[in-house]
Amino acid sequence: MKDRLQALKEEAASSIESVSTLEQLKDLRVRYLGKKGELTAILRGMKDVSPEERPVIGSLANEIRSFLEQEIAAKEDQLEREALEDRLREEKLDVTLPGKPYPVGSIHPLNAVIEQVEDIFIGMGFEVAEGPEVETDSYNFEALNIPKDHPARDMQDSFYITPEILLRTHTSPVQVRSMEAKEGRVPVKIICPGKVYRRDDDDATHSHQFTQVEGLVVDRGIAMSELHGILATFAEKLFGMKLETRLRPSFFPFTEPSVEMDISCVQCGGDGCRMCKNSGWIEILGAGMVHPRVLEGAGYDSERYTGFAFGMGPDRIALLKYGIDDIRHFYTNDLRFLRQFQSV
């Protein structure tokens, strides 16, 4: 039996050395060391061995089993390393080859202006409020002191879905909704950026869809002087320069008194140029003190509280800020135009 065990050891060692795949090595393990393997088959003959030789044969069988397990483990490590090296050679990449450039997008110039406006007002303590773009006639007009027969409705020329539902013509409904949500509490200090819609012929300075940013402040003792101070500060931060500002009387149904704010021309500094039509001034927004009827309709006592509101078009501001001559560039997705603002 000793001879059979030694012969098995030599045969198995030679077979293990000659295998070239892990699958073949697995088959050898089963063949020699499995429950029905050749080593087990030899040991079944232990019943024919004398009692004196059995310990010797058992010890030799264990040594051979341990030897073969070590040989198989070593061969397995070798084959795994070789397989890894083969895979690395096959998957080798030449890292010196030039890469494939992928175009990187950037923020749209109009969105850049809106975000800058938001950052300026947030820095002055305002919160950003949002509301639905599909609005009711009540919020879009009547709550803002614009009844159904008011001529200001003709100026808006709206997109109606039903007689009482329309695409909002301004973001002012968000102001009303915000005041109602406060349930008469103060302060209210918000800006409302968003898209608005009006029936208009698209040209270099008009679009049927555009953006607005409106603001609202309601509290005790709010005065027109605070409105002027906030808007002047805003204009200087937005254009990054010292600007002159002026307020001119105007009319909006939801504010009284109402004004429009001009800034000294950002291109000529007030000397007069093509941009400002040689006037030295450029209009950038409308504003005014919130009309008492609007306050009362939103649940505020107009005898105790006052407020101001303002509204501006980021499209127009972006035209001025970047010297763009046609508002339609913002909406045509022309990459030649958009690539000019990758660093904005």
From TrEMBL:
The keyword DNA-binding does not apply. Transmembrane segments: none annotated. Binds 2 magnesium ions per tetramer. This is Phenylalanine--tRNA ligase alpha subunit. CDD domains: PheRS_alpha_core. It is found in: Cytoplasm. SUPFAM superfamilies: Class II aaRS and biotin synthetases (SSF55681), tRNA-binding arm (SSF46589). It is an enzyme of class 6 (ligase). PROSITE patterns: AA_TRNA_LIGASE_II (PS50862). Tetramer of two alpha and two beta subunits. GO terms for cellular component: cytoplasm. Residues 65-94 form a coiled coil. Its EC number is 6.1.1.20. GO terms for molecular function: ATP binding; catalytic activity, acting on a protein; magnesium ion binding; phenylalanine-tRNA ligase activity; transferase activity; tRNA binding. Mg(2+) binds at E256. Its cofactor is Mg(2+). Its main location: cytoplasm.
